[in-house]
Each structure stands twice: as structure tokens, then as C-alpha cells.
Amino acid sequence: MIYKTHGVCSQEINFDVQDNKLTNVRFIGGCSGNTQGLGRLIEGMDVDEAIKRLDGIHCGPRPTSCPDQLAKALKQYKESLS
């Protein structure tokens, strides 16, 4: 899935889901080290667990962050399955 981000430095998040587990998580743009680290940490994580852990994280004064945007992308992914 490709998700266009809003309100953060990264422009999009690409990921796949297999058996409700995250794979191939890549952020385009943003803080390269942080987004690469995040992608590696959640690789293989259950989608619902990732949403639970990442949803609502802020970046400084911004009301969102790259992790929060990933949670939004995962919620959108789940809605698309319905």
C-alpha cells in the first residue's frame, strides 16, 4: 500500500501486509535514520499492535508524526478490507 502523509516531513509511506503482519515498510522523505529505524522495529509486527503503539504520537508542536501517520495508514488499510 502507498499512503500519502500529511503534516510531516516524509511524503509517503509504503508497506505490505501479509497475514496481518507488516512487511516492506518504507518512508519516503523525512528523517532517514529515524524512519528506517521505525520501519525495522515494526517489521513483522501485527497491524493492530502497531496501530495501538503508534497512534497519537506527536512530533514537537505538530499534532502528528511519522509514526502517527503510519498508524493512520494502517487504519485506512484495515478500512479498505471491509
**How is the largest sheet built, in terms of strand order?**
1-2-3
Q: How helix-rich are the residues, as a percent range?
A: 40-55%
Query: What is the beta-strand fraction?
Result: 25-35%
Q: Got a strand count?
A: 3
Give the N-to-C terminal Cα separation: 16 Å
Number of separate structural domains: 1
Structural class: alpha+beta
**Rg from Cα:** 12 Å
Q: Number of helix segments? A: 3
| Overall shape | globular
Unreliable spans are: none
GO molecular function, one term: nucleotide binding
Protein name: ribonucleoside-diphosphate reductase
Family: Belongs to the ribonucleoside diphosphate reductase class-2 family.
InterPro entries: CHP03905, TSCPD_dom
Mind sketching the topology for me?
Layout: E1 2-4, E2 10-18, E3 21-29, H1 32-42, H2 47-54, H3 66-81
Antiparallel strand pairs: 1-2, 2-3
Helix pairs in contact: 2-3
